[in-house]
């Protein structure tokens, strides 16, 4: 039977929802509305004078080759972060789930990166791969690899991807670990008795049952790659070399706060918000059909 909660007062549900609705309105709808308004305006760097320009800011964006290039960079970066982050986390969760002795130590060790702030994570990886001071860069040079994330685009992209994946891997690991532990052990044992090897048991039993968790993490990791990696990029490459690691969210900051183009920056934030909403809708509309609940 379907159970429903009935309130005696018609106003009580709204009162209970009021705190959360207020937070969403203040920290999302109000800034989003301000950004949409500013995207149709031309302002000076100090916000003292404003001129209504309509869609001119959006026209300038889509005729700017640097902005169009940031789309390619963001697509490549977000796809690599989501794929590598989810794949490595799932592998680590499967291995950790099989450990019997010292399991608590391994699980705690894998959760540690989640406690590190994104800016700190960026600085940590920057120092490790610094061309002059980094121990990892020194080891790579001893192997004949000329690593220089300050000059080489490929090295810079690899650096921010590794830092972003390392920062997010603990979050993904927690959810995959919880999902694996919720799978009845009797299913795994029955498959083992039937002669299924570990890879077959994972692919036929565990992975399909993890599809809701995988779908959830796919959405979260895409949003993370679009927004929460700002501090990592600011601490490591700052969009360089040139603008080869200038993803969309960092270009909003660079054009608005460094170059003083407040109207263009607001237009970029509106486009970025529309892209993320569209990606989320597509994921829930099409990808979720393959999820087995």
Automatic annotation (TrEMBL):
Domain ABC transmembrane type-1 positions: 71-283
PROSITE patterns: ABC_TM1 (PS50928)
Top-level taxon of origin: Bacteria
GO-annotated biological processes: transmembrane transport
Subcellular location as annotated: Cell inner membrane; Cell membrane
SUPFAM superfamilies the record matches: MetI-like
A GO term from the CC aspect: plasma membrane
Pfam families cross-referenced by the UniProt entry: BPD_transp_1
UniProt KW Phosphoprotein keyword: no
Family of the protein in this entry: Belongs to the binding-protein-dependent transport system permease family.
NCBIfam families: PRK10561.1
Protein name: sn-glycerol-3-phosphate transport system permease protein UgpA
